[in-house]
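Fold this sequence, please.
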Amino acid sequence: MHKKDELRTKLKTIRRQLTAEHITKKSSVICKKITELKQYESADTVLAYLAVRGEVDVRDLISTALASGKRVAVPKVSGQEMDFYAISDFSCLEIGAFGIPEPNTGICEKYLPGENDIICVPGVAFSESGGRIGQGSGYYDRYLQKNKNLYKIGIGYDFQILQNDAFETEAHDISMDIIISSKGEAR
């Protein structure tokens, strides 16, 4: 196994063991920290995700953004590609690929990148300098490669934020602009 694969396996196991109470508490703190960022305040659109398997839950962030008049878009996977679709509330979601809630593309409009938009990126691990280990399928790396102007916010629990030498990034890996955990921010 490569070091990234070993870390991915270890940290996914830890994440799956988190209690619902822990996830709720830490997710709430992280969502609040994101809303305090100047990039969030100036964003027209917030690209978010729908948490699965113990990921930081950003539904509070989605609700806050919608309530404040921001556009919110969430991902939908099709083949090897991922696109984002604007949602107006949680009722326009359906269960999609990998059992992950996704926008119903029959009623949700495809997101087109804007100038002041931010993207919340889940990960299995992050380095203090912005490196990221994802699930291993490369969906976010491919999407971010095509949409370079988005302000990239990596989101993880404290145990997922590792020292810079914990893993090596590869040429196709896209770095985050900032990493947010319940203890604070890195980068």
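The radius of gyration is 15 Å. The helical segments are 3-16, 20-35, 38-42, 59-67, 139-146.
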